[in-house]
Structures are given as C-alpha cells and as structure tokens.
Queue: 2 jobs
Job 1
Amino acid sequence: MSEQQFSKSEKFWMNFKLYQLWRFIVLNIKIYTIAVQSKWR
Amino acid sequence: MAKIVVIGAGFAGQTAAIYLGTRLGKKHEVTVISNRDVFGYVPSWVWVGVGHMKPEETVFKLKPVYDRINVQFVHAAAKEIHPDPGDQYVLGEEIGTGKPVRLDYDYLVIAPGPLLNFAGTPGLGPENGFTHSICSLPHAVKARDAYLALVERMKKGEKVKIVIGTGHPLATCQGAAFEYISNVHKDLLKRGLRDKADILWLSNEPALGDFGVNGVQVKRNGIVMRSEEFIKSVFLDAGIRWQVQTGVKRVEEGKIYWENYEGQEGITEFDFAMLIPQFKGQPFKYIGKDGQDISAKIVNPAGFVLVDGKYGLPYAELAQTPEAWPARYQSPAYPNIFAAGIAFAPPGPISKPFTNPNNFQIAPAPPRTGMVSGMIGRVVALNIVDMVNGRQPGHSERMTEMVAACIASMGDSLWDGSAVAIVMRPVVPDRKKYPNEYGRDLFISHLEMGTAGAWMKFMLHHTFLWKFKALPGWELIPE
C-alpha cells in the first residue's frame, strides 16, 4: 500500500470476487480460532 | 436456591443472561430487568441510519427467548441498588405503569449499557439539540429520516455539508462513526449524489484510525502498517476530509463549536451531523442499609462500576501495567456484584490523553462495546456459576489479554459493498508480553479491506442474532 491512496492493483484485489472468497474463508478461520481460545478462560 | 439479577439486556447483559439461564436457570432464579423489552443488534443500526435496513430487522422480543432458557423477565427501569448484606435488592419502576418493582438478589450483574450524555455538550443530540446519533434505535431512525430528507435536497441540486464523528472531547465509539461516514459516502455514490456533499470526519482521536485503542498495527511483508495510514488511504480514496485532535464544545443550529490540541477555537458549519455523545454510567442510586448514599463505594464520578482493576495510575504507568486492567469485573466492596460491558470503570484511557494549553482535555475513552462486552458478559456469568456451585470464581479475561475483531462496514451490498476487517490482540496494549513499540501481537493483529468484509458483516448480523436468541448451537458462536 502506498502512503496515499490505494493503488489500482490494491483496488483490483479488494473487489476480485474469487480472491475475496479466499479472504472470507481465511478471515473466518482466523477470527473463529482466536475467539474460541478466549472461551477457555 | 440462588437469586441472580441481571440489569440490562444488551450485548453484555444478554450474553450473561443466556449463560446463566442455560447453566443455572432450572435450579436457581435468574431474572433480567430491562427498560426495553427487545434486544437490539447495535452494529446494524449503521445501516438503519442510511435507510438500508428496516429497524425491525435489528430487534427481537426478549421474553420468548427467556421463557426457553429459564430466565424471568421484568420490563422495568432499575432505579436503586441496595447492596448491603442481609437485604440486597434492586428497586425499579415498571415500564408503562410506573409501579415499583423489587428484586432480591444473591448475585447482581450490572450491564445496562451507557447513558448517552448529550447534556455534556450543549446543543448535541436529536432530542434537545441539532445533531443526530445512531447510538439507539429511535435515534438511528431519526438520523435516517433526516439523512433521506437531505438526499432529497441534494437531488434538487443543493450542495450540502455533512459532519460525522465525535461530539464530546472524551467520547468513545469512533468505530461506529467511521462505519456511518463510510456508508453515507457509499450510499451517496450509488445515488449519483456524491459530488453534492462535502463530507468531514471530525474526531477527538489523537490520530486518524486511532479508534480509542491507540490505533491498530499489523505486520505485513515484514513492514509494520498502522491504521492511521490505512484509514488515511480510505478517506483519500473516498474524498472524505478529516479533522482529528478536536473536542466539540457546543452545537448550534448548523454550527459546531470546537477546540483543538493547539488550543485554537473554531466553527464548522453543517447541514447534517451525526456525532457520538460521551458515554456515562447509568445514574442508579446506591443505598446503604441505613438509607445513606454509598455510591462512592461502588461507582466512579462518571457512574461506572469500580471493579478489580487498579485505579488512579498516571497514563504512563498504566500503559506499562497490564495487570491494572480488571480480570473478573467483580466489585471489591461487594464481591457478589459484577459489572459487564460499558458499565465497568476502566482504569484509564488506552489512547494517549491530551490536555491543550487552555487546560481543555481531549482524550477518547476506551471502547468496550461489541465483542468486548460479550466476552465480559460471559466471564461474569461463568464466575457467578462457579460461586453458586460453591467454587472460587475461576474465569478471567483482562482487556490486556482479550482479542477483538471488528468488521467496519463500508457499504452493505454483497456485490460491491466493502468493509475493513480489524483484528487486534490484545485490545489494550500489553508491553510486557509483547515488547514491541505497540504492545500488540503483530502476527495476530490484522487490517484488511474488501468485499469479503461486507460478506462477514452480513454473516455476523445473522449469526449473532441467532446466538442472542439462544437458538440451537448458540454456544458454538464466539462472543
């Protein structure tokens, strides 16, 4: 990422649905895993 | 048989009620007292505020849920708490009739959510002022109506000024305001009216992207990226102007009066403003057995419940003392009283406070809504379960240990909507455990924007409503 506006490439990936599906899966796994750890406290 | 009373049915109170009801409800008496008979899913009110979601899609009736999980419901506003041993009870006023209600308790959870202190900023708020809020459902509906009226003016070619941010120098919940400004931008873009609006972010944060948590920092490709740069890119991309380090002092029709870090005073004009008010604790009366006011033993001057934290440390020392943050959210004066969500008194700010040359303090208060509220509600409930079963309370989670995920909506469309996914661990930096400049786990902390975020926000709306209705499998959904 540049220090100013998002680049064309960054904007492309933010809207590319197949890549976003991958990010959706990764983000869900990441958030679920760390949030579940909290339940053990 | 133990009697447990929960005051409030928001994120913290509802989480506590579900855990208590399902674990103790059959053998013990669990009662929720709330001045609202519905649960409101606050994160989606940002969509109500731009007319993209019907208000009724964000609420459900509490009583049918409680009937299933052995929790009694009293639709009343709590007024007094009598905590002295021997005769411990909550006094309330039934909504509609005004009849007095008395609830005896052995354990008490105070989780009523914040008092929206519009009075702290003259001219602020939708009821007695000139600005709007999305902090309650009626306020979000009013904000929507005013926003849609503004849209009509823009359709006729009028150029307007929109200001969104914080309405008090000590306000919190910048995240909600960020979501609202992003959704307003996206909505106007879709309507083809974006060029008719000058949109300004006006906030008490020390820097853009601070969000009251000292910002979010993540490591990507070996480089530390800060939320300040990220949000700056978002605003530049959206053509949103920003003004941070600013405390709003008062509002008049169409004019916001403020003071900044340098001590300069100024006026910002607006046609539509949504400014988050200061949050305070609910003004319950705490009465001792002789009838005296014992509030000072239980709450701080802002009305937040004092719990097992270390209070009074200067900011520099607090920032180096993670154990100063409460672990069990239990009152030291009355160990059978717990506070959850916004109700507990934090030991100090997370973001660096600032006092300007005019002795005017500008400092975001620590956010403790959403996921943090839910987690505290669970910790409190499980500790009460321990105590009722004759054990020592065995659950704890400080905000210096807690992970928090926040999905900040930037348009609700599942096709071209977007959201910023923010994960941070811990919420309050722990510079002992994470000896980097930021006191955070830079591997776990995460900052990402894209359509996947919009899908997550949509998914969370439905999964959390499922959880808060205590439907099958609710416990598998984390707080």
Job 2
Amino acid sequence: MLKLLGNGILETLYMTVTSTALAYIIGLPLGILLSVTDRTGITPIPTLNKILGFIVNLIRSVPFLILLVAILPITRAIVGTTIGSTATIVPLVFAAAPFVARMVESSIKEVDAGVIEAAHSMGSSPVQIIYKVLIPEATPSLIIGAAIAITTILGYSAMAGFVGGGGLGSIAINYGYYRYQEDVMLITVLLLVVIVQIFQEVGMKIAKVADKRIRSEK
Amino acid sequence: MIRLQNISKVFYTDSGPVEALKDINLSIKKGEIFGIIGLSGAGKSTLVRCINFLEKPTEGNVILDGRDLGGLTRKELLKARQSIGMIFQGFNLLSQRNALRNICFPLEIAGVSKSDAKARAYELLDIVGLSDKAKAYPSQLSGGQMQRVAIARALATNPKVLLCDEATSALDPNTTQSILELLKDINRKFGVTIVVITHEMKVIEQICNRVAVIDRSRIVEQGDVREVFMRPKSDIAKQLILPKSEAVEFLTSRRCLRIVFDGNSSFEPIISNMTLECHAVVNILFADTKNIDGKAFGQMVLQLPDDDTAIERIKAYLESKNILYKEEYLNA
C-alpha cells in the first residue's frame, strides 16, 4: 500500500510539474502576446487580440473532464496511448495553457504604465520593453501566478484519475471510490492537500524574496 | 533647438474627439530653461509628450535640432529619443532594479557595453549626490532620492534636452528646492536644454529663463519670466501669478504696489530699510517671499501712503535696489 501511495505521489508530481512546464512554454508567450496586443498594450493589434482571446476563452469554457475525453484522439496521436500518467499530460497542457496565458496576461498588465512610458521615452523598442521591463517588473506576480497554476493543474491531474490517468487521483478513485476503502481515499486526499500547501507556500516565499518592492530591513 | 510649429493634438475618445492642443507654436533655445505652466487639464503634459513624440501630434511639426521628428522612421525615432531625457512626477523607476541598474537601463537600450554603462552610472550617481545609494532599490529611497536617480537615468545617454513633467509636484517644499537646484546645476554644467512643465509658479520663477502659459489647449502668453511676472496679460497668467489674499481683495480701491523678487536682489529687510530711508509708512497686504542662496524670490503687495512725493521716493528706492515693482489696483 505504501509503495502504491509513493508511486502515486511520484506520478502526480511528474504529471503536474511536466504539464505546468509545458503549459508555461505555450502560455507565457501567449499571455505576453495577449497583453501587448491589447488596445492599451505597447503594440496594439486589436484583431489578433480578439482572435487569441476568443480561442483562449473557448478552451477555458470547456469543463476539464469533457476536454479530457474530447481530445482523446489527439492524445493517442501524440503519446500513442490514452491511459497512464504520460497520456494525462496532453489534456492537462491543453487545459492549462489558456489558463496560464490569462494569468500571465493579468500579471503583465499590472506593470506600472508610467514605467513603460519612461522606457518608451528612452527609445526602447517593443521587444526591449518586453524583455527588460514587462517580464522583470512582473516577475513576483508571475511567480505567484505560477504557484496558483501548478496547484490548479494538480487538481486537474487528480480528476484525470477517473478516465485512466495515473497518480493519487486514480488511487483515490480506484481504491477509495470503487472499492469503498475510505481510509485510502482519506489518505490520498490528505496527501493532495499537503502537496498543494507546499507548492503554494514555496511559491509565495520565492515571490517574496524576488520582490524588491518590499522593504527589506537589515 | 526645439521648434513646435502649429501643433494640434486631438484624442478620439468614446465620447467624441477631444482637442488637447490647438495651434501651438513655440521655439525653445539651446541651453535655456523653458517653463510651460498651466492648470491641470490645460494640455501641458500632452504638449511635453509631443516633444519626444510619445504623443504624435495630429497636425504640425516638431523640429528638434533641425530634424523633423515626424519625418523619421521608427528606428530613427527610437534613436532620437535617446537624445531627449525625460523625468516624471511619479519618478517611474523600475521597481525591480536598484539605483545603479536603473541608471544603466537607457545605456543598455542604446547598446552600451555593461562595464561602460556601469562606469557611467557611478559617475552620474556622483553628480546627483547619491554615490552611497547605488545598491538601493526604489522602495528603499525617499521621493527626492528617487527623483535624483531618475534625473541621473535621464542624463545617462548625454541628452541635449531634458523634459521635466511635473517633476517636483510630488515632493515636499524642501526637496523641491534641492531638485530645482540640481536641475539648474545640470543646465549650467552640461548645457542641457531643459523644458519644465508645472502648475506651480514658484518653479518657473526659480529656474526658468522663459515661460509659456497654456490654457485650454492654447498658448495664451509667452516671454521672459521677468516680463510675464511683472505684466501678466492673460487672465490665466494673472490668476497664477497675482497673489490671492483676502486682505488684497478687500482693499481693492487703494493704491498698491506689487513688488516682485526675481532673484536679482539680495535677501535683506528691504521694507524696513525702505520705510526708514523714505520716511514713509506702508501696509503690507500680502507677502510670500523666500531666501534661496541669499537671493530673494517671491512677491509682496504694499498699500501705499496718500502722499505722492513719498510714493516717488519709494519707487526711486526700489529702483536703486534693482527690485521690480508695479503699481496697480488689484482686482480692478
């Protein structure tokens, strides 16, 4: 049993961390694109912004379990199977990338307009503003966003247990729900709670250390 | 140095077009400190942003050093902006960079090597008197210190022009004083042309050579600060310059003398000396003067005695002391 739970934890972490990383590879540039092409952004392209925004909203409005099933053919095409933790990563990334994009967008939009104007006044190009102003200034907020994203993805990964995904979610469903082993159910849920807490706390700590706006008394 | 020709700016908002600037013509000379004063909403912030094309004028030309900014390509414009420094009311420092790296920022943009940028940044920190704050983040600095870092940052690329958008409006009087001194110093030492936007007459009076008064999107008056101060023509200039005091308004029909201290006379008990020497008593209705570096700035309103010869003596005395005055019936 212990081995089973240990495996479950590893699988959950594997799915969550990999999916989050992949979701950020897609979502970070997408989020930046969404914020800079906005009407109030540094390079307004309203049409592109509307199209991207529509696609992001479309995917986000599909409930995860339905998305999971709906993209089974895509999953099979990419990883060759639809069960197990690796197969779960595909729908997780699919569902999380638009969510991450919105989180990134809102972090970038928090950057003080005055600072952006100052950068413009110094002759910065849009690309320089993105790399030297928007991302560094939004870093603490981006880290907090990442902590929220990873815990949300963890929740999704547990849901994937219903349709043959791996990890703690499937243990909770297979042992706790189908076999009425309530103790197993309880333990897996507790483990999930602990993991979420750790991710959240660590994320907040890193964000705090990274944020130079907070006065550090020495 | 800077010529604005027939500048107009229209903003198209949801509630219809708004004319922020109408037919602005200004010519700012090399090496001078030029003030633009107006109430909030008059259009002065838009005007200063037209100078570096942060706002593109709807009509008209901005000629900087003989080049029409409107005719530049995007790349050339970005390059041109590197020769125009700008500081802001809210300082606008990068909160995640320390003072040194904030000053390095425009140098990075201009493609200066890291080590050269650093050396230049230390040099600038020294100029603005913050050598010991190189590693401090903006959150660890006071408002005055932040503005000093912002000034250092604006000067990093050796700009020919420095635009100041309400640069002292968020600072207390003492700090304002020290920032104005610094700007004056920089103007003297490096010959940087400075354009100052403000709603405070005190700022203009202390550092500017010439001033333009902007009201409801138009320039209503411009000229030497001395001249505009002594003889404000437009209503808005009068409103900004003439003292507001209940005593002054109450005694409108009496002969008064408005004395302007524009920094050309030393700070001394001028009125006491005057009454002693002229054997005439006056009533001080209004006074707002201060001592800056031993020079007197500000103005005073005196109620004159009913004796013409005494008045003549007073005027002669003031002239001998090189003090500007104007006889007037305020409010009348």
